[in-house]
Amino acid sequence: MRKWLQQETHHPYQRSVTPPGKLEPFKTFFLQRMEKGCRNAVVLFEEIQQQGYTGCVTTLRNFMSPYRETLPAKATERFETPPGVKHKSTGVTLK
Predict the structure, then answer these.
(1) HSE-CB of 13 using CA atoms within 13 angstroms
(2) Measuring CA to CA, how many Å separate 80 from each of 39, 43, 69, 77, 87?
(3) CA angle, 82 then 64 then 20, to 5°
(4) CB neighbours of 4 closer than 8 A, spacing ≥ 6?
(5) Burial 40-50 (b: 16+ CB within 10 A, else e)
C-alpha cells in the first residue's frame, strides 16, 4: 500500500483477461448432443477426444450438470458399443 501511495501517477485496477478454457470450442457440440438425448459424459468425452479435446472428463461433467436438469430426459436409452470395443466393467461377476 505504501508503494502505491508514493507513486506519482495511479493506474486504475484492471482484471487480467482469462483465456478461454479447453472446453470452449466444444460447448455447442455438447448442447446439440444433449438435446438429442445423449447425457452420458463418458460417451461424449470419447467423441470429443477424437476431435482433439485434451481436457479431463470431470471438466465435461461439471459443464453438463446444470443442463441435465433443464433438458427433458428420455425414459430409457440403449447404448451400443462398436464391434471390438468392450464395455467398461463394474467389477461385479455374475454367475
Answers:
(1) 2
(2) 14, 11, 25, 10, 9
(3) 105
(4) 10
(5) ebeebbeebee
* pTM, to two decimals: 0.58
pLDDT tens, the chain, 95 aa long? 788 778 877 778 788 888 889 999 999 998 899 888 888 899 999 999 999 999 999 999 999 888 877 766 666 666 677 777 666 655 555 55
Distance CA 25, CA 45 (A): 14
In three-state secondary structure terms, 34 is helix
C-alpha to C-alpha distance for 75 and 10, rounded to whole angstroms: 61
Residue type (1 letter), 16? S
Which run of H or of E encompasses 2?
Answer: helix 2-6
The answer to whether the Cα torsion of 51, 60, 63, 23 is positive or negative is negative
